[in-house]
Amino acid sequence: DLWLEVLPGYEAARGAAEAQAILVEGEAAQLALATREAFYQYARARGGLAVARVATQQADLRHALVSARERVGETVPADVLRARAHAAGARVAVARAEGGVEIAAVALRALLHLDDGVAIAVDEEVLDALPAPVGTRATLIEDGVNRRPEARALRRLIAARGHTVDSAEGSRYPSLFLHAEAEYASPSGRVFPQVEEFRFSANVSVLLDWSLHDTLNGERRADEARASVGQAREDLRALRDAIRTQVTSALVAYEAANDAMEAAREAL
């Protein structure tokens, strides 16, 4: 039992605990990513608000200019009304942008566990060049499969469930019990005739125990453990496909963002 069932069961439990610890690491990485995304959403909202305020100033100036031209007879009242409507629409855009900034700030404060009203500054130069990906698409996918905490946890879980299979299979075999006992006593209960003097005695017994129920139950447990191993392997295969999709999507988004940054610099 010790070699065939207990030790494999211990290795299975330890492997499952290590897999859970790796998943905790993965959750921390996901939280860090979500926080970075929330920060850049907040920075984008702040930038949108600045653009909306400038657009409002321009719309107000345009309205004033058209009104002045209308007073001297260089344009018609319809142009004034059109400029006034454009200025009103610009003020609506400012109100929406302010709401977007507040929503983004609340989301970021929630991730950082900050109280409401705490100011969040954007001290990062968001127009700096983006760092280039290291490696090709194939190497990035392979790095993701090897280094992602979810993949590492699944591989550890597969190994742990393999030990569970070994433990379940070990429980099908007969159990061997070895019992040994030694005694030094006066009188000794194992020495005949008994005399009043110290004698040494010992006995050893071996028992082989087997039951059909244990064998069938062990086979059932082994089948369940093999099924769980197969499920974990399929989960790892599905995760590999998901990582391939995520890496491809991230590379495409990076290239689009890089082009957008170039366009933004030229526009600026």
- Which spans of ≥5 residues are poorly predicted at pLDDT below 50? none
Query: Structural class of the helices, strands and pairings?
Result: mainly alpha
Query: Largest beta sheet: what is the strand line-up?
Result: 1-2
Query: In whole angstroms, how far apart are the ends?
Result: 75 Å
Short description:
This protein is mainly alpha-helical and 268 residues long. It contains five helices and two strands.
Describe this protein's structure:
This protein has helices at residues 2-71, 77-112, 137-147, 149-170, 212-267, and strands at residues 175-185, 199-209. The protein is mainly alpha-helical. Helix 4 runs antiparallel to helix 5. It starts with a helix and ends with a helix.
Features:
268 residues
SSE order and pairing:
Blueprint: H1 2-71, H2 77-112, H3 137-147, H4 149-170, E1 175-185, E2 199-209, H5 212-267
Antiparallel strand pairs: 1-2
Helix pairs in contact: 1-2, 1-4, 3-5, 4-5
